[in-house]
Each structure stands twice: as structure tokens, then as C-alpha cells.
Amino acid sequence: MNRLASTDAPRANHNALNQNRKDILNGENGRLRSELVALSVEKQRVEVLLRNLTEHNQQLQQSYESLTAERDKLVARLQTQRSPDAKRLLCPTHWRVFEAKCYFVSTAKKNWTESRRACIAEGADLLIINRKSVLEILFSPGSFEQNAWIGLTDSLTEGVWTWVDGTPVTTTYWGTGQPNSHGGDQDCGELVQSELNGGWNDDGCFAQQLWICEK
Ligand SMILES: [Ca+2]
Ligand SMILES: [Ca+2]
Description:
Layout (H helix, E strand, L loop, with lengths): L1 H81 L1 H7 L5 E3 L2 E5 L6 H10 L3 E2 L5 H7 L9 E6 L8 E2 L24 E4 L8 E4 L6 E5 L1
Parallel strand pairs: 4-8
Antiparallel strand pairs: 1-2, 2-8, 3-8, 4-5, 4-6, 6-7
The structure holds calcium ion (2 copies).
GO molecular function, one term: carbohydrate binding
Keywords: Coiled coil, Disulfide bond, Lectin
Protein name: C-type lectin domain family 4 member M-like
């Protein structure tokens, strides 16, 4: 009996070991299955998220393209409005167009204050020359046969010249020896006729001259 018992003992141990291993494997299998189910659920969730993000991305792309097209249209419209041809239509008859602004040179003569009033009545003001191109191309020295008032004055403070819109005068085109406040009573600026080599002169505001409006 003892001999038999000693023979069966290893087999019993072996069976117990096998059972134990089976239990462990079953347990591991169950855990892996649960993990697989959880991963499948997570995969579906990520796929839905990816689909939503793709749709959102497409919507953003469409918005971007539509905004870009809208911007291009607005830029094109702005350029049309600024083009000389478009602006010409907006300037009154007998006004000249230059760099998207309207200019008027009178044929009548008035003093400086009355000249300015005439410009304002047209929704304009006396010419301000703060762009080199305006003086050098549009009203170049030598292009005038008669003097013409511009929006330049030192009537507020003698010797301090300002434009009619209140801006200081930075670049100047005074003729030789000007401004000289001749006779102590020259507070208004004019473009000088070509025979006198052009440029600017300070003149008595009461003088009757042509005038130039700008708007
Ligand atoms: Ca003066
Ligand atoms: Ca003068």
C-alpha cells in the first residue's frame, strides 16, 4: 500500500499542477477577452471621433475657401473703385482726376477766403500738397500761366505754415526768396505762374487769384 501511495503521489501533484495551470490560463483568457471587448469599444469610439474630425476639417476647408473667394472679390472691387476710370465717373465735370482724387482749377478769380469757400461749397477744400507727385506731375512748376491759391496759410501764427486740414507743412516747394511776408501782410499760399519759375509764394490773402480745389 505504501508503495502504491508513493507511486500515486507524483501523478496527483501533476494533475493538481495541470489544473492550476488551466485555471491560470482560463483566467488570463477571460482577462484578454474583456480587454479585447474594451479595445473594440475604444476603437469604435476613436473611429467615430475620426469621422467627426474629418467632417469638421472638410467644413473648415470649405469655409476657408469661401472666405478666400469673398476676400478676393472685395479686393477686386476695391481696386476697381480706386482705378482712375472708376474715380473719373465720381468726379464732377471739369474736374481732373489724379491718383484717385479730383482736382479743379478755377477760371474765375477770388481772394483766398472766398476761394476756399468756393471749394467747400463743392464738398472739397483748397489743394493740399503733401504728395510730391501732386506738385511734380499734376501741378508741376512751370505748368501754370497764372498764380493759383492753394490751402496754405500762416494767418494763425506768422511764419508757421499749415495746411487747411490742420496738418503741418513738411515738404515745401517755396520759390526762391519765399516766403518773404512782403510788406508784412502775406499770409496765404499760392502756386506761382510759370514765367516766375513756379514754386510757392506767400501773397496777401486779399489778392484776386485763381484757386485749386481737391477732393
Ligand atoms: Ca505771413
Ligand atoms: Ca511773398
